[in-house]
TrEMBL record:
GO terms for cellular component: cytoplasm; lamellipodium; nucleus; ruffle membrane. Belongs to the calcineurin regulatory subunit family. CHP subfamily. PANTHER family: CALCINEURIN B HOMOLOGOUS PROTEIN 3 (PTHR46823). Residues 111-146 form the EF-hand domain. The keyword Lipoprotein applies. Its main location: other. It is a lipid-anchor. GO terms for molecular function: calcium ion binding; protein kinase inhibitor activity. Keywords: Calcium, Cell membrane, Cell projection, Cytoplasm, Differentiation, Lipoprotein, Membrane, Metal-binding, Myristate, Nucleus, Protein kinase inhibitor. SMART domains: EFh. Pfam families: EF-hand_6. This is Calcineurin B homologous protein 3. It is found in: Cell projection, Lamellipodium; Cell projection, Ruffle membrane; Cytoplasm; Membrane.
């Protein structure tokens, strides 16, 4: 029993070093993971799809896919997993961790870039490094049309107009017949340059409010 507990503590410490979560937070998240998986070692899309709090979320599909996107594992791999284990689950959750008072400005900027990359990946569904009009249109359509306040054609028109505005900002000298390939990550950073989102990007649907997930003891 003692050896097993020590091994678990070593595993948790390794995960803490990789993600920035405290041991207590990792323990709490592991309990959530076990609940979702039914005490299995891995979870599938079906496990996340059954979460009641996600049922009416207009970007439910993108949120779920983000957990299985290899780009969100802080590695250079691309593609998608069929199932993920706890460490992979935790690596995705780490993108929602807010900055801490002890962080240097350089560390805060690095965290912001990771969060922006995570959001970019959610929109860049084909892993080609560009958010195309078609990809952007689908997200906007889902956000607007599923709210019931606007039909799909109107949502499409809004998406097209928004992308055209982005194009004129990023490529101001485009000719009338020029084709805008889409938003690169560098464009994406510029678009969101003035938005303070480091502490706003959090997640509650797992029963864990990540706005409280600061270094040290959890406040939840």
């Amino acid at each position: 029993m003692g050896a097993s507990q020590t091994r678990t503590e070593h595993q948790y410490q390794s995960l803490a070093d990789k993600t920035g979560f405290s041991l207590e937070q990792i323990k709490n998240l592991h309990q959530r993971f076990q609940h979702l998986s039914g005490n299995e070692e891995k979870i599938s899309r079906e496990n996340l799809d059954s979460i009641p709090a996600l049922a009416n979320n207009p970007i439910k599909k993108q949120i779920i896919e983000a957990f299985f996107d290899k780009r969100n594992q802080h590695q250079e791999e691309v593609g998608f997993f069929e199932e993920i284990g706890f460490e992979q689950f935790l690596m995705v959750m780490s993108h929602f961790r807010p900055p801490t008072l002890k962080m240097t400005e350089e560390e805060k900027q690095a965290m912001r870039k990771e969060k922006l990359r995570f959001l970019f990946n959610m929109h860049d569904t084909d892993n080609d490094g560009t958010i195309t009009l078609d990809e952007y249109r689908k997200v906007v359509e889902e956000l607007l049309s599923k709210s019931g306040a606007i039909d799909q054609e109107a949502a499409k028109a809004i998406a097209d107009a928004a992308m055209l505005e982005v194009a004129s900002t990023n490529v101001p000298h485009m000719g009338p017949d020029d084709f805008y390939e889409g938003i690169t990550f560098e464009h994406f950073e510029q678009i969101l340059k003035g938005l303070e989102m480091e502490s706003r990007m959090h997640i509650r649907f797992l029963g864990v409010d990540t706005t409280t997930m600061r270094c040290g003891k959890s406040t939840s």
